[in-house]
Amino acid sequence: MSEFISTMSHNLWLFAIIAFVFASVIGSFLNVVIHRLPVIMKREWQQECNQYLNEYHEKLISPIAKKLDKPIDDYPEKYNLIIPNSSCPKCGTHIKPWHNIPILGWLMLKGKCAKCKTQISIRYPVVELFSGLAIAFLAIHFGPTIEFALATILTFGLIILTGIDLDEMLLPDQITLPLLWLGLIINLNSTFSSPTDAIIGAAAGYLSLWSVFWAFKLLTGKEGMGYGDFKLLAVFGAWLGWQVLPIIILLSSLVGAVIGIGLMLTKKMNSSNPIPFGPYIAIAGWIAMIWGSSINAWYLSTL
């Protein structure tokens, strides 16, 4: 193992290529998680609602309870991240192994189902390609180190959260909370930040957006963001320390404003449409992980 690390340290481009291939394959699974996790969550919520209604309101609203017993989706009864195998949502044809090759499989199919020719979303190869490029960049930036391995885990989590938030306006606790606790644990040895800065960062990340949320709600009577956004910023505070939080908030607000204005100008949305803020926090946080110290140093030098 030490010989492999030594070899990769002297040949970062080879290491980056290996990382790209590995991450592209994982990116195919990330697509599965992005698609299936919300369905699994909604089923769990339905079961919890049914249990509550049946236990506490059986006689009063049993018709509602019976109505909720009906499936909320058209997916098989046994449905998780592994089962069933991937198939065309229209004709049900199982996807052959060679069509599951990252990026190339989509290109071989020309973006269509092999049988019914239903269009396959371009998001699938985009996620695979982006995963590969992001992890390849981390390989060059960090080299074959523990920081690279941990940054890879965080990046995969951010890709999942971004995809789900874009689709469902949701940042699942099943992803954010493990990342939060992992950030605190890895910094016990000051991997990315000191333990003190990590703990303060986690608290400050959550409370800063929580304060904005309640200030906005008290002033307007509306909710400007979701609790998942608080937790995601807390994740970056736990991983990178409290010092990067101002950069992340500023960058995410800037990116969100630019994209939002662009969408309004192209008439793809209006000012009343909700915009998921999680992807912008994820992008800003990833940038801060790579260049946060340099950005901080540049800013302080301008004062």
TrEMBL record:
<keyword id="KW-0808">Transferase</keyword>
<keyword id="KW-0489">Methyltransferase</keyword>
<comment type="similarity">
    <text>Belongs to the peptidase A24 family.</text>
</comment>
<feature type="domain" description="Prepilin peptidase A24 N-terminal">
    <location>
        <begin position="21"/>
        <end position="142"/>
    </location>
</feature>
<feature type="transmembrane region" description="Helical">
    <location>
        <begin position="232"/>
        <end position="265"/>
    </location>
</feature>
<dbReference type="GO" id="GO:0008168">
    <property type="term" value="F:methyltransferase activity"/>
</dbReference>
<feature type="transmembrane region" description="Helical">
    <location>
        <begin position="277"/>
        <end position="300"/>
    </location>
</feature>
<dbReference type="GO" id="GO:0032259">
    <property type="term" value="P:methylation"/>
</dbReference>
<keyword id="KW-0812">Transmembrane</keyword>
<keyword id="KW-0472">Membrane</keyword>
<dbReference type="InterPro" id="IPR014032">
    <property type="entry name" value="Peptidase_A24A_bac"/>
</dbReference>
<dbReference type="GO" id="GO:0004190">
    <property type="term" value="F:aspartic-type endopeptidase activity"/>
</dbReference>
<keyword id="KW-1003">Cell membrane</keyword>
<feature type="transmembrane region" description="Helical">
    <location>
        <begin position="148"/>
        <end position="166"/>
    </location>
</feature>
<keyword id="KW-0378">Hydrolase</keyword>
<feature type="transmembrane region" description="Helical">
    <location>
        <begin position="198"/>
        <end position="220"/>
    </location>
</feature>
<protein>
    <recommendedName>
        <fullName>Prepilin leader peptidase/N-methyltransferase</fullName>
        <ecNumber>2.1.1.-</ecNumber>
        <ecNumber>3.4.23.43</ecNumber>
    </recommendedName>
</protein>
<dbReference type="Pfam" id="PF06750">
    <property type="entry name" value="A24_N_bact"/>
</dbReference>
<feature type="transmembrane region" description="Helical">
    <location>
        <begin position="12"/>
        <end position="34"/>
    </location>
</feature>
<keyword id="KW-0949">S-adenosyl-L-methionine</keyword>
<dbReference type="InterPro" id="IPR050882">
    <property type="entry name" value="Prepilin_peptidase/N-MTase"/>
</dbReference>
<feature type="transmembrane region" description="Helical">
    <location>
        <begin position="122"/>
        <end position="142"/>
    </location>
</feature>
<dbReference type="GO" id="GO:0006465">
    <property type="term" value="P:signal peptide processing"/>
</dbReference>
<comment type="function">
    <text>Plays an essential role in type IV pili and type II pseudopili formation by proteolytically removing the leader sequence from substrate proteins and subsequently monomethylating the alpha-amino group of the newly exposed N-terminal phenylalanine.</text>
</comment>
<dbReference type="Pfam" id="PF01478">
    <property type="entry name" value="Peptidase_A24"/>
</dbReference>
<keyword id="KW-0997">Cell inner membrane</keyword>
<keyword id="KW-0645">Protease</keyword>
<keyword id="KW-0511">Multifunctional enzyme</keyword>
<dbReference type="InterPro" id="IPR010627">
    <property type="entry name" value="Prepilin_pept_A24_N"/>
</dbReference>
<keyword id="KW-1133">Transmembrane helix</keyword>
<feature type="transmembrane region" description="Helical">
    <location>
        <begin position="175"/>
        <end position="192"/>
    </location>
</feature>
<dbReference type="InterPro" id="IPR000045">
    <property type="entry name" value="Prepilin_IV_endopep_pep"/>
</dbReference>
<feature type="domain" description="Prepilin type IV endopeptidase peptidase">
    <location>
        <begin position="153"/>
        <end position="261"/>
    </location>
</feature>
<dbReference type="GO" id="GO:0005886">
    <property type="term" value="C:plasma membrane"/>
</dbReference>
